[in-house]
Inverse folding.
């Protein structure tokens, strides 16, 4: 399964972004191939509709799950329609790489 993690930067040492639709980029981790893809989030600068547009983007990349701190109502609706599962991120400060390690441990 591909898991999209909201990220504040393009490096695995970056912190996860608390926002979904306006995050800087997504780090997409493939649990089957153990590979990582970094995808810019062009919707971060939208005046409105950033969440649904970002959800469409990660769906187009084959993600079946999103890990983020907050998912807005419109984005959550699109996620439900697309069958994308949402896992909330807690308040602990950890890097995207540490989130990936947690995914590996829970697989």
């Amino acid at each position: 399964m591909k898991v999209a993690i909201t990220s504040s930067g393009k490096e695995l040492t970056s912190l996860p972004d608390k926002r979904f639709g306006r995050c800087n980029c997504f780090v997409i981790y493939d649990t089957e191939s153990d590979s990582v893809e970094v995808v810019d989030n062009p919707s971060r600068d939208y005046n409105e509709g950033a969440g649904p547009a970002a959800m469409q983007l990660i769906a187009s990349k084959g993600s079946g799950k999103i890990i983020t701190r907050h998912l807005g109502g419109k984005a959550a609706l699109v996620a439900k329609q697309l069958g994308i599962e949402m896992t909330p991120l807690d308040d602990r400060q950890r890097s995207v790489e540490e989130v990936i390690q947690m995914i590996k441990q829970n697989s």
Observations:
- The longest strand covers residues 2-7.
